[in-house]
């Protein structure tokens, strides 16, 4: 069995440990106890470390990463910055820490932010601080600057650690899938990672698709985006920021987990788990996306609407893997919108979500695609509501009638009662009409 190799805090390390050991558990066993386990779910950010590659810095939740995924990568833990690092000093001198439990994770999130930039509030959305409040932290971040450090680049290579397989090509991945049909398919692990962190599972066979070359990247073409199944949400978000056609999705994608989650989480994973509240799924349905699958029998294309079969069920065959998602661009002049309601605005799972692509002939709706999450056993289109909107103006009266036509039997759980979800879905339709009438409204609304 090969040994896992990583670069940790600038030094090469050889790891002899089960590949399904979480990165957090291994770090702490090695005496690097700055990263803490607060939730073991990727919610609190106390375990935040940074994956480095060249000039890139991406924060991740060490509780959700396993060692096999990290093979060949460069990782920086808080101990790799040291007491005199400018980020550490800025927080200490600004009185931006009290008990210190969450501070190491905040340090690492802030250090990554000094390279990537953007809204500092968004950079901290994945770090829950229970005792300071965020104002001193944000004030300290205003005084921080990039230290200019870089790290080794990352080159994916095929590896195997016992039953943990890390293919680098699609051909290898397909062969492994055929050989081990019952193996766990793992990419970013922001959902399946809970089985390692919370439930302490160690599956006998894991096929990690994170490094498969043909499953990387987001390619923007004239008619569509092609999203690699192993491309992280962070890359999809960047592609939407750079393309005006998909720009309305940006505020929604910025609320899809935290920066830590978006570093590793994938659209392919959202499809694979087929959760009824998977945030990417309503967007894929509203735009008529197609899933590209591969097996030893060849390639096939399946519309997302046919791919999602029910609660955590999809149409993937036992010898298939998801390779990419083809996401059509909205037609010129169409209204593209995506919104979610959750208990917390940031870093929270949806109770109800809506994605819509509405086309017009003059002021009249010529075609509508409305897709909801959290309203059924899987994300689903609301065809009756679409029919109500078609052929009329998109105004509040039409939105109310479309809401009355919803034929869902919503879930009823701790995130929202069924009655609440139904009324919330109707409210999102009215908000869609308001957004059409008032395009000057903010792209997202705190709910």
Relevant terms:
3 domains; Uridine Diphospho-n-acetylenolpyruvylglucosamine Reductase, domain 3; Ubiquitin-like (UB roll); 447 residues; Enolase-like, domain 1; globular; 16 helices; 20 strands; alpha+beta; 5-stranded antiparallel sheet
Please specify the SSE layout and strand pairing.
Layout: E1 4-8, E2 11-15, H1 23-29, E3 48-53, E4 56-61, E5 74-76, H2 86-93, H3 103-116, H4 120-123, H5 135-142, E6 159-161, E7 164-166, H6 170-179, E8 184-186, H7 193-197, E9 206-208, E10 218-220, E11 224-228, H8 233-241, H9 250-253, H10 259-264, H11 267-273, H12 280-286, E12 290-295, E13 298-303, H13 304-307, E14 308-310, E15 313-314, E16 321-328, E17 335-341, E18 352-361, E19 364-373, E20 380-381, H14 383-389, H15 396-404, H16 418-437
Parallel strand pairs: 1-5, 7-9, 8-9
Antiparallel strand pairs: 1-2, 3-4, 3-5, 6-7, 10-11, 11-16, 12-13, 12-16, 14-15, 17-18, 18-19, 19-20
Helix pairs in contact: 2-5, 14-15, 15-16
């Amino acid at each position: 069995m090969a040994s896992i190799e990583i670069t940790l805090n600038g030094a090469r390390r050889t790891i002899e440990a089960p590949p399904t050991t979480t990165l957090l558990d291994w770090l702490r066993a090695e005496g690097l106890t700055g990263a803490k386990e607060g939730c073991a779910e990727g919610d609190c950010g106390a375990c935040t470390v940074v994956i480095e590659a060249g000039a890139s810095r991406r924060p991740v939740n060490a509780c959700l990463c396993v060692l096999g995924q990290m093979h060949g990568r460069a990782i920086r833990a808080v101990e790799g910055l040291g007491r005199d690092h400018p980020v550490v000093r800025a927080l200490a001198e600004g009185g931006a820490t009290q008990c210190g439990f969450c501070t190491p994770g905040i340090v690492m999130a802030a250090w990554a932010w000094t390279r990537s930039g953007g809204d500092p509030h968004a950079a901290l959305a994945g770090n829950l601080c229970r005792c300071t409040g965020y104002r001193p932290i944000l004030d300290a971040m205003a005084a921080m600057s990039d230290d200019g450090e870089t790290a080794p680049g990352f080159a994916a290579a095929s590896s195997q650690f016992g039953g943990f397989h890390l293919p680098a090509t699609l051909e290898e991945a397909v062969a492994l899938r055929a050989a081990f049909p019952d193996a766990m398919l793992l990419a970013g692990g922001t959902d399946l990672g809970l089985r390692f962190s919370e439930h302490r599972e160690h599956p006998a066979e894991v096929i990690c698709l994170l490094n498969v070359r043909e499953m990387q990247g987001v390619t923007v073409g004239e008619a569509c985006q092609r999203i690699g199944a192993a491309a992280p949400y962070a890359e999809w978000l960047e592609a939407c920021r750079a393309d005006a056609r998909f720009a309305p999705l940006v505020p929604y994608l910025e609320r899809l987990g935290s920066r830590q989650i978006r570093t590793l989480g994938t659209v392919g994973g959202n499809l694979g788990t087929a959760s009824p509240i998977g945030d990417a799924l309503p967007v894929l349905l509203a735009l008529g996306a197609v899933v590209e699958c591969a097996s030893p029998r060849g390639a096939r294309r399946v519309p997302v609407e046919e791919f999602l079969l029910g609660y955590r069920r999809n149409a993937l065959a036992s010898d298939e893997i998801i390779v990419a998602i083809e996401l059509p661009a909205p037609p010129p002049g169409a209204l593209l919108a995506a919104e979610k309601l959750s208990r917390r605005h940031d870093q929270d799972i949806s109770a109800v979500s809506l994605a819509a692509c509405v086309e017009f002939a003059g002021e009249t709706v010529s075609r509508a695609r409305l897709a909801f999450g959290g309203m059924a056993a899987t994300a689903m289109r609301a065809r009756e509501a679409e029919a109500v909107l078609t052929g009329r103006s998109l105004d509040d009266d039409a939105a109310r009638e479309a809401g009355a036509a919803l034929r869902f039997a919503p879930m009823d759980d701790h995130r929202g009662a069924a009655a609440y979800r139904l009324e919330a879905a109707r409210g999102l339709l009215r908000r869609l009409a308001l957004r059409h009438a008032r395009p000057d409204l903010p792209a997202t609304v705190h709910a």
